Amino acid sequence: MRPGEPTVAEFDMQMKMLRQYFHPLPLVEAVERLQAGTLPDGAACVTFDDGYADNEQYAMPVLRKYGVPATVFVSTGFLNGGRMWNDSVIEVLRNYPGEVLDLRDIDLQCYTLRSHEQRRLAVDSILRQIKHMDPQERIERVNEIQKRGARLPDDLMLTDAQLRSLAGNGIAIGAHTVNHPILSSISPEAARSEIATSKGDLEALLQEPVDAFAYPNGRPELDYGTEHRDIVRELGFKVAVSTHWGVGTTGSDRYQLPRFTPWDRQPLRFTGRLLANYRQLDPLLA
Ligand SMILES: [Zn+2]
Is residue 138 a contact partner of residue 179, using CB atoms and an 8 Å limit? Predict the structure, then answer.
């Protein structure tokens, strides 16, 4: 259902290449050295968003194998059996026992589900149509889709025990709000509460400071604004990352660092993509 995501073997290759040709560093250390001008050549940081259980089950052993530091950004509202709304849609379509799913009564289409490809196309179509709905309307739509009878997994996201296991194995834990709202679509007070609560909950669970934050969806000026950047700074985070495509430079805003996904199944192309991105400078210079 998700052909774009790397398998364990592909992720193993990617981390092997990263270890061999680059200089992977912990995120907070990298940002401090970036701004002090002591960053080594080929510096890179690995991050995961949302808090999926497979980060602990499948990615962590690979990270440990190659000694690659990483940060996992967790939306705390989904810990211990929760599910993000997009995953609910994906899982209904994956597990739906019939070959036709008629959603015309909730303003969607009638989908034919005879193959994985058709199920994947149905997911794309539904997500595209409900992604930008008002959150309450979207929840109602997803609840209706869930009622169509498919059994849904409750082990997609991390448990408290898995979260502690990540932290205990040297993986940094960052905050990613409680409910993963698009910050620019909620009030400043609600945004502050989402950011502060996720930090506080994670610190209580781990008994250590949480220094890094990732903006949900992460597009500067669209999904979050400078007012949210200021909240993140005021709450005592040391760094924050967006999903803006690029690499950080000495002039980068440490509360809006860009990232990119160089995924490729071929080792040489993966490495080439990583290298090519070093020329993609951060347009959000502070
Ligand atoms: Zn996210």
Answer: no
